[in-house]
Amino acid sequence: AKEAGRNGYHFHSPEMNRKAHERMELEMSLRQALERDEFFLEFQPIINVGGDCLVGAEALVRWQHPAQGRVMPGTFIPLAESSGLIIPLGEWVLRKACEKMKEWRDAGLPPVKLSVNISGRQFEQRNFTALVDEVLKETGVDARALQFELTETSLMKDAGATVSALYKLKELDLRIVVDDFGTGYSSLAYLKNFPIDHIKIDRSFVMDICDDPDDRSIVEAIVAMANKLNLDVVAEGVETREQRDLLLDLGCHEMQGFLFHRPLPEEKFVELLRDVRLC
Ligand code: C2E
Ligand code: CA
Ligand code: CA
Ligand code: CA
């Protein structure tokens, strides 16, 4: 930069160059990764703790990079979003999740529900509902076995467009989950206008629920509101028995977190499916 001499940026520039270079390389290999079939899904069970049964599972994408090994979505999803690659990648995830449901059903396993994360960029695509419809038809999956997780932030970006897009998805009979609930700094009015089925309490509130009375009050209020509005509620990031017990006390029965299961490779998830009871 031209001010380099004045404000001392030049001290950082080799580092910044290296970072920029790494990003470019990662973006290039991300492009190739789809063609080379380097992505795969893991499945994290969602449990109804009170009822002791399996509600479903969240499909989470991973990248087996040829040189770097396993890369987690926190690293490449933001890059996929900024580069537009999230469109083909998101389509891959949706199709793979539905194909897996079909495979498992054909193998005689119980009809488990899957949650798929949908990025705002995907959801904004005008033909998104048509794509979903096509994938459901191709795989013969029942739309009611599929739910979409959309973050509060991506839902709020363009409320008008969001309502109509959500209603189109609802016509297919799909369930909508608000992901990372409580982190979007938004008005809650959308809960009444949007056709939403489920809210997922963000891990940041669950994390300190036992030590921070404010977080506890927030979770308590979210659960009470969800009950009043007839929305299902699930807590993510449950890691300890104390958190589990407190959540149950507050009336939240559906949970997801390392306390129960980490995201599982397909073989392990299928093993679980063989002897678990679905809710
Ligand atoms: P998310 O949707 O909030 O997914 C939950 C994340 O929390 C997952 O991280 C999961 O492994 C992690 N997690 C679950 N239980 C616990 C726990 O008890 N403790 C802790 N510390 N973490 C827990 P992961 O798989 O690394 O995914 C990170 C984020 O990447 C996801 O956050 C989601 O925003 C995004 N992502 C993952 N897969 C996809 C995808 O297929 N499409 C899109 N658009 N985004 C995805
Ligand atoms: Ca999610
Ligand atoms: Ca989440
Ligand atoms: Ca989260």
Automatic annotation (TrEMBL):
<feature type="domain" description="EAL">
    <location>
        <begin position="23"/>
        <end position="277"/>
    </location>
</feature>
<protein>
    <submittedName>
        <fullName>Sensor diguanylate cyclase/phosphodiesterase, S-box-containing</fullName>
    </submittedName>
</protein>
